[in-house]
Amino acid sequence: MTPQPYGEDGYRKLKKQSLLTFKEKWQGDFPKIFVGTATCGISVGALEVFEAFTKELASHGIKGEIIKVGCLGICFAEPLVYIKKDDNPTICYQNLKKEDVPRLVYSYLLEDDPCFDLALGTLELKDGIPFIPELERFEREERIILRQAGYLDPEDIRDYLACGGYEGLERALSLTGGEIIEELRISGLRGLGGAGFPTGVKWEECVRANGSTKYLICNGDEGDPGAFMDRVILESSPHQVIEGMAIAAYAIGAARGYVYIRSEYPLAIERFSQALAQAREAGLLGRDILGRGFDFDLRVFPGAGAFICGESTALMYSIEGRRPMPRVRPPHSVLEGLFRLPTLLNNVKTFSCIPPIILKGGDWFSRIGTESSKGTTVFALAGKVKQAGLAEVAMGTTFREVIYNIGGGIKNDRALKAIQVGGPSGGCIPAGFVDTPVDFDSLKALGSMVGSGGLIVLDEDTCMVDLARYFVAFSQSESCGKCTFCRIGTNHLLFLLEEIARGQAAPEDIAVLEELSHNIALGSLCGLGQTAPNPVLTTLRYFRDEYLAHINEKRCPALVCKELVSYYIEPELCRRSCEHCVLKCPTRAIGADERNIKVINQAECVGCGICLDVCPPEYRAVRKVSPKIKGI
Amino acid sequence: MARAVIDGREIVFAEGEKILWAALREGIYIPHLCALEGMDLPFGGCRLCLVEIGPGEGARVTAACSEPLREGLVVRTDSARIAALRRMAFELIMTTHEIDCKNCAGRKKCALIKTAAFLKLRLEPSRFRSVLRQRPVDDSHALFVFDGKKCVKCGRCVVTCEKRGKSFLTFAGRGFATEVATFDGLPLAEVCGEACRECVEVCPTGALFFKEKKREKPEAKGPDSKAVAQAGEL
Question: ipTM surpassing 0.95, yes or no?
Fold first, then answer.
């Protein structure tokens, strides 16, 4: 066996050096500027902000360091910059534009005015401005998986090492595989990819599988619309996944592993590949890891660009170079997986939980969460919520805390109507259940699932039929086409929903819709098909009256379904001399009566809604109405 | 030999044997379309062979083609739930199949007619409209023809071709648009110059058929599937 450039001694040296550089980074003499540069930040201009800082520092001749870090998960505040100057606490600036940079550099770095108007808070305690971990958002969160996201430079292994990185692996290598699995069993960790299968049991089964060659796979094919936590982890703290995987490989006896990252995440692929190279160089991957005679290496596999690749057996076919169609079980992939060899597959979040569990013990982990679901879960808060972003909360936290305390409530202070959890596989939970403690089992009982953790907040303006139609259309177009129920069944499901949305369905269609949904859930081959009707089943369960309104009254209560909605001008509110709507109507459907009050000719109207947008706010004469107005 | 119970009847099976084949051997008919005997990893796509396993309330729905029998396993093929699933699966399949039995070369060995007869259903779906996708007929090959409108995507041809190490026929597209196709949609004659015929032999719906057996269309008459279904029942 060829020795690594770093053996265990080399690793110790690197670790020591990392602690020093990290301390220097955060506490050194000259100012440090940290710019959040995950894809989310970059998409709203973080790189321009980074450039602007570089330019400004150079032009003023300020000695300072600009460091790219990952994402803190507070997406609504991107681009996010933290500045550490002298002994001041680190101040976090939100929604920073490149135009703000010259002022900030001049006022704060040259003078001593921290520009509080741009600040979100501080990373450490300081009177006057809120301390970020004291912001309500962070107070409610319990960060295990996202523990380091946004604080570290994801492109430098030394940052991770300085914050306790790879100490879990060190400890794991002094245990036996059995002891590690026992620790997992005690922890009660359940797979965070969606299904919630007990991780310890899965590992144990893989250990017991026959064969000396075993594979390890990390599923990073995050395809649910609305979910983005795996991307943030891979882009912000790739080493925690590598460490978790190395521990798993040691426990089950795997020598090779794959990290399957969807190709739509190029930055995640780039950063993860870089992290792998650094881990190899540090002797944390490859041969004779940390001088303990344990060999393990990993490679990144860019995903094949289909939602179905997130299904474990399809994912494995995809790595084999085949069409990703899920296969029948048994055999389960822990016994016969990749290349028909025993394979352990876990999600990015599950692997992220492993190092802290090994370091702090299963007991510690099992004290977080509820009776049946231990630890935390990460929600990707999106939709009609004020402060979108990632929220990692202990299992058992209520939706109310997640939406109102962490997410800041509903946009425009409208009323919450429902919560769609778990993307197209999940279900729609009505506002009445907002105080339900969230865990694997409570969501299942409500007809939904934790799934990917996408949490879409819906307000009164959402039509439930339209919502179900959207998700079914997604599942339908992403079906692999293998089994009857999913390929053809979801297609008919979509037709039925479209007919309902157009007001063309008959009352008896509800029964067909229901039976079809139940049968698709029961009869489909894989998880995609089995969960695809969930949005329909839950909306039928909780919002049946909306379906009935569409069918019986041809009315869309949320005024969303275009075919059931008309635009109407209130004669009392219309200002006669105003011609805004008339001039902007693309089909010239708006005329005036003898008093010069505007009237929409319904036969000519195509329902584009421009009249509603252009009617001056002081009149607000244009209204949407449902059912449709017949005639002129 | 181990024992299990199917529909109240005790049967003896060999280690690893799948429910479907043991049941058929014992004279318990389970409809099936995509299953090929001897496959150790069945395709499992048609979902016609769904059965229930396990006792009473906790019974689980599974595909008979892929679920191996175990000692003492209780299997039900005749519950109301299974009947509803089979009927639904069959109706769904029939919304994507061109029903033109009179002019179909595959009618004699048609698995759809056989299934309809067993399930006592008409060939035309009652609850769903036809969503047949129009595709041109590929008759470029010297020996056989592929008519995609008859194809129900059971994958038997794909699996068979793959087993021979060829994969001339494969799946393409996704979602409802998934279809059996050649590489890049090339004409069959350009990808497959062989005379192995195995794909034609395994096609259960007359989508792949031999040229000499193809009947000339006498005139465009509507399908008379009820009569055919009844004929199949006899």
Answer: no
